[in-house]
TrEMBL record:
The protein, known as: Epoxyqueuosine reductase
Organism (species): Flavobacterium johnsoniae (strain ATCC 17061 / DSM 2064 / JCM 8514 / BCRC 14874 / CCUG 350202 / NBRC 14942 / NCIMB 11054 / UW101)
Lineage of producing organism: Bacteria, Pseudomonadati, Bacteroidota, Flavobacteriia, Flavobacteriales
HAMAP family: QueG
Swiss-Prot/TrEMBL catalytic activity: epoxyqueuosine(34) in tRNA + AH2 = queuosine(34) in tRNA + A + H2O
One of the GO biological process terms: tRNA queuosine(34) biosynthetic process
Length: 308
């Protein structure tokens, strides 16, 4: 392949990403993530994954995309904005903004399917796989490597112009492309996220104990919530946005333009009383195709009861 076609293909891929509604697209060379390997190993050894046992599976595949896609050459990283134009009623139990609309897995998978088809149609015989938080891919590491932002002290990917309220997805392709470069860290001496975390889950800059995060407790933990956390959830009943809400870079967040991420109006207007009295039938209607279905009706009721 000539340099010229690498350039042409990369340009086409970035333009196509924009057409499909992604706010950013970066490309990096597929290979073993050397710097991440010891970090991931230490994080797992310290049990910072809690009961998320799936994080221990496929250790090698998490670090090397060539084990996921035969002859992988490039990782195309993509960001899709989910910052809402409206917020919940202030006198309410809180839901993480990413869960306001339809489940992002389905929304993004459809876009990625179209993306891959378009690449194959326009470039030719290209093999690849699409990933959106559903396989052992270190998406934040790849996005940072391809220059889409830096990993902040709260372990989220942060971008200067748009903050951090976006989903990350990838296409891993057996196609040589032009590669982007990582950007510098712009957290500086700021500790807003560390200071604001209600459960002190950010142990030190860039080190998050996943098993202490409110998102872990309210979504991943299937058993009873620990009593020593009572009163520390700051009204969050599904997920938590605190470390993002206080991040100075998120003052640049702009509302998304994806209709499927628009919330059911009830979700925004419900009061604490409405949530406390929610029936299974209402739950099914309000959260049709929503990520909140992951915690199920009983899980949400458990979380609400814990906040009362």
């Amino acid at each position: 392949m000539s340099i010229n076609s690498k350039e042409t293909y990369s340009k086409f891929i970035k333009e196509e990403a924009k057409r499909l509604g992604f706010i950013s697209c970066g490309i990096s060379k597929a290979g073993f993530l050397e710097q991440e390997a010891p970090r991931l190993e230490k994080w797992l050894n310290n049990n910072h994954n809690g009961q998320m046992a799936y994080m221990e599976n496929h250790f090698d595949k998490r670090l090397d995309p060539t084990l996921l896609v035969d002859d992988a050459k490039s990782v195309v990283s993509l960001l899709l904005n989910y910052f809402p134009s409206e917020s919940q009623n202030e006198e309410s139990f809180k839901i993480s903004k990413y869960a306001y609309g339809q489940d992002y897995h389905f929304v993004i998978k459809e876009k990625l399917k179209e993306f891959l088809h378009s690449i194959q149609e326009n470039i030719g015989d290209v093999s690849g796989r699409a990933f959106v938080d559903s396989a052992p891919v270190l998406d934040k590491a790849w996005a940072a490597k391809s220059g889409l932002g830096w990993i902040g002290k709260n372990s989220n990917l942060i971008t200067q112009r748009v903050g951090s309220f976006y989903f990350i997805a990838e296409l891993i392709l057996d196609l040589d492309l032009e590669y982007d470069h990582a950007v510098t860290d712009h957290c500086g001496s700021c500790t807003a996220c560390i200071d604001a975390c209600p459960t002190q889950a950010i142990l030190a800059p860039y080190i998050v104990d996943g098993s202490k995060c409110i998102s872990y407790y309210t979504i991943e933990l299937k058993e009873n919530l620990p009593n020593d956390m009572k009163g520390k959830f700051d009204e969050w009943m599904f997920g938590c946005d605190t470390c993002q809400d206080v991040c100075p870079w998120n003052r640049f967040s702009k509302p998304h333009s994806e209709p499927l991420f628009n919330p059911n109006p009830d979700l925004l207007s419900f009061s604490k009383k409405d949530w406390t009295e929610i029936t299974e039938e209402t739950f099914r209607v309000v959260f049709k195709n929503s990520p909140i279905k992951r915690t199920k009706f009983d899980g949400l009721k458990r979380n609400i009861k814990f906040l009362e």
